[in-house]
Amino acid sequence: MGRLKIIKAGLSSSIQDKGRYGYQSKGVSVAGAMDQIALKLANGLVGNPLETACIEMTLTGDTIVFDEDTTIAICGGDFNFKINNRSIEINKSIQVISGDCLSSDFALKGLRAYLAVRGGFKLNPVLGSLSTSEREGLGGLGGCKLTTGDQIEYHKKRPLKVARRVPDSILQRIYSNRVISYTVSPEIDRFTKEGIDVFSASSYTIKMDSNRMGYRLEGPSVSTSSGNDMISGAVNFGSIQVPGNGQPIVMMADRQTVGGYVKIGQVIQSDLPYLSQKKPGDAISFKTIEVDQAIIKWKNLNTQLLEWINSLDLQEEDLCNAKRYLVKVGQRRYSIRVSESE
Amino acid sequence: MKLGEKVFKVNVTSDSTILIEFDAVIDPEINGKVHALCQVLGDYIKNSSFDGILDLTPTYHTLQITYDALGIDPFDFIKKIELVMKEIQYVNEQEKEIIEVPVCYEAPYAPDIDEVCGVHKINKEELIKRHTSRDYLIYMMGFTPGFPYLGGMDKSIATPRRPEPRLKIDAGSVGIAGEQTGVYPVDSPGGWQIIGRTPLNLFDVNKDQPFLLKEGQYVRFKAISVQAYERLKDHGKT
Q1: Which ipTM was obtained for this model?
Q2: What is the percent of chain A where pLDDT is above 90?
Q3: Domain ends where: A118, A149, A174?
Q4: In chain B, at which residue ranges do the beta strands (DSSP E only) sit?
């Protein structure tokens, strides 16, 4: 078992995985990584199941010492990370040895960085997830964000034989500049045509009081035809609520499960990583997309990601002298790979 | 209870959600259909072992299904559930399930009770009588883990929220906000008028059953003394 120690905690770091699904009917926030793709990429780089919990750092990174050799990877924001004061690349697997110290400056590019450690952290899930929900005091380390002095154990696995790097084509697809796409909500007829047009034609600035719960936007007012309140209903990651002042709020990972403001739409999953990496003060704009197109985009992105990871896993297995067998069961053929377990 | 063929709409509303909507009203019968359908669909999804259904979220008049497009085609899926719903023209009327929640309406657990009585020019006994004489339907849970959205409060004790929200309201506090009444499951900030406190834990993540209440049940408040409150509170700890 390895152990990492937070020598100096960043501004707002927490343990996050896919999120706490299955309890929205009980009012439990989903939480989870703000940038779900960076979470998957970081895990892919260290050979973990893709939704293994990572440390999500925001704006500034943690200074961390590792007490056992392992492989780490950082994806998402670039905070000029360093090992023993020498700069390292993000989006790449990195070998660390016992005593190595990870540090960083502040977010140069993006806002949130994800640190994956090979083997994953040894923590107990709460309601099925390790994700920290600070407001609810659930998950992570005692339901809190990370603080200086915290220690987290990680499983020890044999090191990867091949160094891994995220292809630029995947990074381009996730983070290239864009107009954010949203699918319109079932309440779209609560908005005036002018309101809908204004929302798509304007630029909105992310306000300073934006956080993991929601991104508050400032820009031209989005008008509704019959008020802004509705009977409270479910809200989702990316739901765009419009309260009475006409200034939209995009609901993010730590959102409440239900809300009573009318929603103009929902940011598509493929554009949530881009949005999550935007800082307060940044300008963004929106356009509509059909649901079926949004699904295709999400599937294509994930397919590209999975193909990349599968190819890495195959390379790794080959180097570990995996044996391949072709097995015929009935009419179907199965290719089975057998390699020595750890 | 008849589900009704055309009274609900089923739509793929985003790349992660499907929404089943009944008439947009806050109504016990409509809400009963939401919960009955949630039960039926929950069982159907479990028995058919669909890969890619992440969550079911029932609210006042809608049921949201959160799906993972990498595991399921939502357009195929809504065709399947429309068939299921066609088959179940009727759902079993659920027996009214009442959960008794003991509440101490006395100091120090009822900081705003005198103010609320003052607003309505009634004495404490009368307020307690009106607050405990109804069974409150849990329309849905939300806001914080285990928080019940209750319906059916006597309108004659409706009271506006406090002008200045409190930074901390203790877990178990029972309050009034406008025409709503509710119980705070965990310590949280809030502006509700606090008229009492229950010794019961509405949410305890360390228990096998972390949630005391379930949407669709009814809550019946029962007045208890300070002594009874403290006895029950201590009992709950062991």
Answers
A1: 0.92
A2: 86
A3: A174
A4: 9-12, 17-21, 53-58, 62-67, 98-104, 135-141, 148-151, 166-169, 173-177, 180-183, 188-190, 193-197, 218-224
**pLDDT tens digits, A176-206:** 999 999 999 999 999 999 999 999 999 999 9
Q: pTM (2 decimals)?
A: 0.92
Which residue type occupies B152?
G
A322 touches chain B (CB under 8 A): no
Task: Looking at the structure, tell me whether residues A62 and A159 fall in a common domain.
Answer: yes
Task: Check CB contact under 8 Å for A27 and B64.
Answer: no
Of B15, B147, B211, the CB nearest to A294: B15
Nearest residue in chain B measured CA to CA from A269 = B15
Q: What is the CATH number of the domain that holds B43?
A: 3.30.1360.40
In whole angstroms, how large is the CA radius of gyration of chain A?
21
Length of chain A: 342
What is the per-residue pLDDT across A18-43, written as a single tens digit (0 to 9) for each? 999 999 999 999 999 999 999 999 99
**Is B184 in the A-facing interface, judged by CB distances under 8 Å?**
no
Instruction: Give the CATH number, domain containing residue A267.
Output: 2.40.100.10
